[in-house]
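Re-run with default settings, no changes from the original entry. Doing this only to confirm the output is reproducible before filing.
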Amino acid sequence: MRWRGVRIGVVGLLGLLLTVPGAGVAAPVQVTDDLGHTVALAAPPRRVVSLQPSLTEALCVLGGCDRLVGVDRYADWPAEVQRLPRLGGLEDPQVEGVVALRPDLVLLSRSSSAGPRLRALGLPVLAFEADSHADVRRVLSRLASLLGTPAAAEAAWATVESQLDEAARRVPARLRGRTVYFEVASTPHAAGAASFIGETLARLGLVNVVPPALGPFPQLNPEFVVRARPDLVMGARAAVQAMPSRPGWQGLAALRGGRHCGFPPGRYELLLRPGPRLGEAAGVLADCLQGLAR
């Protein structure tokens, strides 16, 4: 229910802004994305297509959910976006479907293949990517500016900070300072200390075995994890269950001793989204850590 509180607070703020003389929600807006493309609109967009779940969630938390006319196939939060047309995924965006919806703005990730094609068709496109907490805050700020309500971003971020603090307070003292390996793909790719997941783990008092120098989400030699001997292991439930079958991994004390968190699909997806539910994700991690301490 926390997200509901977030939205109520931000929507209330939006209502206040709409009543302030000169708030100017219909004023021109101009935003530059992470690829250096600048979009200038005569007024905040009214028909938005979002092809990235974290951007969809951010737009909704900022009070712009009713402006969405289409989303990617993975968007599942909040519930109202599930009734919108689905327009493919990162690897197979449905460009024709996007155009047919006549959006006045398209939001997508920096790595989406749809960006150049949509720009070539004359659509305003903004691409954002968030690797860190600071990136998430920056993207919230850019999207709030687009909506014509820049103050809404700070309200949303304040809620995230409060939830992060609350989650950190719930971490059992005896687990603080423990080393952790968080897997984002079985190839294996990890959430390093420089990633938004790594920053959340640090906020909870854990020490990432993947140093910042390796980047946010590096692919590792499987032997790296064996040599690192993490105290705790985290990842998707199916991946964690399969880890003992990997060469050398059956000897990891974290796996032998049950000091692992295997998250079911819904919760795991939440952990991987660099958006306004960072604080809620931290709560999921804290829940797991409390379970390990019993």
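The chain has twelve helices and eleven strands. The radius of gyration is 20 Å.
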